[in-house]
Design goal:
The protein is mainly α and about 475 residues long. It has helices at about 1-10, 25-40, 45-55, 60-70, 75-85, 95-105, 110-125, 130-140, 150-160, 165-175, 180-195, 200-210, 230-240, 245-260, 265-275, 280-295, 300-310, 315-330, 335-345, 350-365, 370-380, 385-400, 405-420, 420-435, 440-455, 455-475.
């Protein structure tokens, strides 16, 4: 397949003349001398001799010819490129970059090739990435390159958030009878989904895999046939799940099964997450059992999905049982595992157990999320344990944990006011404002009620006026 793909591409480029044929005959001797020097001289001395051999530097076309003759020594070709760049021996253009990129790509030196592609994209700000693509196409045959180089270009475009350019390059490849690798297409689908939504990502999936409206993979004339894999469907399912389109997740699952693509643990995890979010924990457990029957080992993500479902559904004992099973199976629990358990205990009102898990979380250096801090704050304040909640919030704010939510400050301030701790409430309100959160009507009302109980009419009147002024500004 790879050989057929390469020749299909080369046949399309036969009408092109060699991009390096413009090297003057007078420069051919210099090219040969430099190649001989680089390949025969000892490493330490050749670079010194190279500078004296090329006092006027090298033209980009001359460099390209030298790099071509070094294509079976890709590491040496890269060192030569970097030397000429560092010593300003060559004012490299897109073609000399392209030659070196091809040499590195055909040797599968991915990281080095991508580094030069990124540079090529930067040195030609007036040239769209498609311009770099065209230069790579024109130099492809001369360099005896591999289609892999275009996957690297697309990946670099996506890395630079040039999604439209990556799409255009993929389409241009398909118009020439080639297709990027499935992994590259999966990345393209993922990026389009993130930027434009899962529905748009699905349209790209249909386009690049030639999927009909009936969900069948086609084989259009003149295009290399390529089929989606399990990672393709996982990408689509995950994107639809993030977009809140649970029904589409199930549709993608059905399409995957129809195309005889076996789901993996990630596929099952997303499907379980959809069921748990809909409160269908029993269905999620059936999916879990099906996965285990098929011999698919659960990973931490799969465990966390089901633990979350049990915790949110009030089945905290079942969640704890799964968390223990996770570690017995040689897997390590994560901060997410602990947070689901903490929230689960808070949901059933078992704050003491939640605190024990929270302390274990901190001991393991897992930084609790703001939502977990908020769940503990609400649960503790609900049991009139305001100062315990305050200690947790301040501990989170002082550590590297996520910044506590504004709602957490609100719950605490209201709790302090209810207990008549007005000075503490004022200090906390000042801290809250310092964190960038605004004082809302609920907080004003809590202060007003607290000062009424204290009999402080002056503060009550002042706060009522402030609250009315704030509401007028909002209106």
């Amino acid at each position: 397949m790879a050989i057929a793909t390469r020749f299909a591409f080369l046949n399309l480029r036969r009408h092109l003349c060699s991009p390096f044929s413009s090297v003057a005959t007078s420069g051919e001797a210099l090219v040969s001398d430099v190649v001989s020097l680089l390949t025969h001289r000892r490493s330490k001395s050749r670079w010194t001799h190279l500078r004296s051999m090329c006092p006027g530097g090298l033209a980009p076309a001359e460099f390209s010819q030298i790099a071509l003759r070094l294509r079976n020594s890709p590491h040496l070709a890269l060192r030569f490129f970097l030397f000429t760049q560092r010593r300003s021996l060559c004012d490299h253009d897109l073609r000399s970059y392209a030659t070196t990129i091809h040499v590195l790509s055909r040797a599968r030196l991915k990281r080095a090739a991508q580094g030069l592609i990124r540079e090529a994209l930067r040195i030609s700000p007036d040239t769209e990435p498609v311009g770099v693509f065209e230069v790579l196409v024109r130099t492809y045959r001369e360099c005896d390159s591999a289609p892999f180089v275009f996957d690297l270009l697309i990946e670099c475009c996506l890395e630079a958030r040039k999604v439209d350019a990556a799409l255009e390059i993929a389409r241009l490849l398909r118009s020439r009878g080639l297709s990027p690798k499935v992994a590259t297409l999966n990345s393209l689908i993922c990026w389009v989904s993130r930027r434009r939504g899962a529905l748009e990502g699905y349209q790209i999936y249909k386009e690049v895999f030639s999927v009909s409206d009936g969900g069948n993979v086609g084989n259009p004339k003149g295009v290399v046939r390529i089929s989606p894999n399990v990672h393709t469907f996982n990408t689509l399912m995950t994107c639809f799940y993030r977009d809140g389109a649970a029904d589409r997740v199930e549709e993608i699952w059905d399409e995957m099964v129809r195309l005889s693509c076996a789901p993996n643990v990630h596929s099952y995890s997303v499907l379980m997450a959809v069921c748990c979010e809909d409160g269908k924990v029993a269905e999620a457990e059936k999916i879990w059992d099906e996965m285990r029957v098929k011999g698919i080992e659960a990973d931490v993500l799969a465990y966390n999905m089901l633990i979350a479902g049990f915790s949110e559904n009030g089945q905290i004992e079942r969640a704890e049982e799964l968390a223990r099973e996770l570690e017995l199976n040689g897997l390590e629990s994560t901060g997410v595992t602990h947070e689901h358990i903490i929230k689960g205990y808070c949901n059933v009102g078992d704050v003491d157990s939640a605190l024990l898990v929270y302390k274990d979380t901190c001991r393991k250096k897992f930084g609790p999320e703001a939502s977990t801090i908020h769940a503990l704050t609400v649960a503790l304040c609900g049991q009139s344990r305001v100062f315990e909640a305050l200690d947790i919030l301040r501990g989170a704010a002082d550590s590297s944990c996520s910044l506590p939510k504004g709602e957490s400050y609100e719950v605490l301030i209201i709790g302090l006011c209810l207990e008549g701790k007005m000075e503490e409430a004022l200090r906390l309100q000042a801290e809250m404002v310092g964190k960038g959160f605004e004082t809302n009507s609920e907080i004003y009302t809590a202060f007003i009620d607290g000062y009424k109980k204290k009999g402080n009419k002056g503060m009550v009147e002042k706060l009522i006026k402030e609250m009315l002024d704030m509401q007028q500004k909002v209106d």
